[in-house]
């Protein structure tokens, strides 16, 4: 049967373009009618590409591919979410060992299926990278979890940190405010580092156990060392600032999407056994665990809503660029 859809695309000039397209579902794909889509800072990297935008989509399945119900348990009417990946191969050793986010031949946002995006009316999506949304999570809250939430949860879930460990979180923004909630609800001490005191009350309300600023880092002896450091700020900080508050063998997760080099010497890593760990969007298994945990513990983003229109997208993106978003933007499809 297939579906005709509208989608908002980038362009060489960076202007948002409304386009149309048509999709028939492949054998292992489903058609999803989009109701909400989170706005991620990473989207801006693609605004100068001729491609569909948006990768934190939530919607309802309206059509199944010929084999979709054979290789999955999805059915018509299911409320589902999708993120950075369109499809995992399912056969490489990384997929088979639970690390599908490092699949050797995935289909991803920005490189595949560029005719469509979650800033649109419908998408066709492979069931390997599609996730049922628990009833306890509202659709408007689910979108930001599909990338932002999955990114911070994945670092915590795979790092080996345990309840009682101290998790340092740099920044109280789109990623940071979710990291605070996940860490605290997992039984860890969420230790927040921010550039100013303006977000102290907000951080504590999200579940932070301690809050420090640059002035506090100037006297690191007053800060108990952290076992893991999640960098969620919009700009990569000078890591040397944080060395004095890192416990031996601490793990550093630079979750900020940046092309700038990280300034570190091997001596810094050797002497204390620090580890810098690359980590991005969650694997399929970790994504499912994240959604289940968020539903059980009532974790949700603080959001601002905008209409899923060209004007709404432009307004939301401008607010994000200006650093005024509190804390994740969500585009809502017209009813």
From TrEMBL:
InterPro entries assigned to the protein according to its UniProt record, in alphabetical order: ADH-like_C (IPR013149), ADH-like_N (IPR013154), ADH_Zn_CS (IPR002328), CAD-like (IPR047109), ER (IPR020843), GroES-like_sf (IPR011032), NAD(P)-bd_dom_sf (IPR036291)
CDD domains referenced in this protein's UniProt entry, alphabetically: CAD1 (cd05283)
Family annotation (Pfam families): ADH_N (PF08240), ADH_zinc_N (PF00107)
Molecular-function GO term, any one: oxidoreductase activity, acting on the CH-OH group of donors, NAD or NADP as acceptor
Keyword presence, Ribonucleoprotein: no
Keywords associated with the record: Metal-binding, Oxidoreductase, Zinc
PROSITE patterns xrefs: ADH_ZINC (PS00059)
Ranges of residues in domain Enoyl reductase (ER): 10-331
Transmembrane segments: none
PANTHER family to which the protein is assigned, alphabetical: ALDEHYDE REDUCTASE (PTHR42683)
Family from the record: Belongs to the zinc-containing alcohol dehydrogenase family.
Name of the protein in its database record: NADP-dependent alcohol dehydrogenase
